[in-house]
Amino acid sequence: MSQALALMPFGELTEQDIVTVRETIAKDCNESQFRLFMGIAKTSGANPLLQEIHPSVFQGKLTVQFGIDFHVRKAKETEGYQGYDVQLVHDNDTFKMHQERAEDGRYYAVIDEHSWGFPRGKVVGGYAIAYKEGYAPFTVVMDVEEVEHFKRSDIGMQKRMWNNFFNDMFKKHMTRRALKAAFGLRFDDVEPADSAPEAYEPQQRKDITSEVKVTERKNQQPPPEDDEETKQQKQMQQARAEMKKKFEQLGISDPAEMAIYIEQHAKPKGDRPTFAEITGLLKIMDLHIAEKQEQAAENDELN
Fold first, then answer.
1. Could you list the residue range(s) of the whole structural domain that residue 32 is in?
2. Residues 58 and 86 in one domain
3. Among candidates 200, 176, 180, 179, which has minimal Cα distance to 283?
């Protein structure tokens, strides 16, 4: 460890603590990746010694995963937290559920019955419920087929964990999803790589427009002030460029597949998606990118 790294402050962690993290859970990181990982740990308040945060290096790229204990702790710190429940459904269980519509028009799942005896048989699905005061319970229901791909993962550790401890891994996977959605936990969306996507909120677009205007001034011609239509065109161009980048991150390059994805998730009302529909699609793509990263580095869920 370099002297600069050793002297870098990390909250309550001592220098020996940092050495321990470096030589154990972060042993696969190079020095730059380790510094970045520890910086994210400090910023988020996750303690690597308590296994609340874990670095994974796959094909030379660093991804940072937050353990289930950190999800639970952050959820408890959120106003209105009332706990959670997670259960597996086996093929011999009696399980019934339905959807109800809340006053705000949104649907939520209701478990009508879940009873069992022994032997229960194989796991066929599961659900996690997050409870928040003033809101309908938020339920994540999953079929076992949705996580079977983890057993075939190219990542050795991930494959071993899902094959050797499948029930625990499945329960923690569902719990993380429920807590993240119910309590707005956004820390798992961090992408530490240099290729992290640019923000696409309106204030970011204004900065880019300013850069364009500075370039135009080099021609010694005062740039005409953009009218509303021109601004909308520029926003649309940037949104489409951002969508293209995210398709690359998702590994979708075939135009037909892109069209299907847009149709399924943007659900455009016209022949082409509007700016608002693309903006909503970008946020959905962010979630899918985060899920893809989870699939590449979920070997910390039993920690």
1. 13-66
2. no
3. 200
Q: What is the mean pLDDT of the chain?
A: 81
The answer to the question of residue 194 being in a domain is: no
* pLDDT (mean) for 72-83: 95
234 within a domain of the structure (yes/no)? yes
By the 8 A CB rule, do 297 and 65 touch?
yes
Burial environment of residue 156 by CB neighbours within 10 A (0 to 12, 13 to 18, 19 or more): exposed
Number of domains forming the structure of the chain: 3
**183 & 84 share domain:** yes
- Same domain? 51 vs 136: no
Does residue 174 lie within any of the structural domains? yes
What pLDDT shows up at residue 8? 47
Per the model's pLDDT, the better-predicted residue between 182 and 214 turns out to be 182
User: 183-192, 199-208, 225-234, 290-299 — which is least confidently predicted?
Assistant: 199-208
For range 239-252, the mean pLDDT:
87
Residue 206 sits at φ, ψ, to 5 deg, of -65, -35
Question: What type of residue sits at position 71?
Answer: H
Which tokens hold the place of 266?
């943007």
- Identify which of 250, 284, 249 has the alpha carbon closest to the alpha carbon of residue 266: 284
CA 151 to chain centre: 20
Same domain for 182 and 104: yes
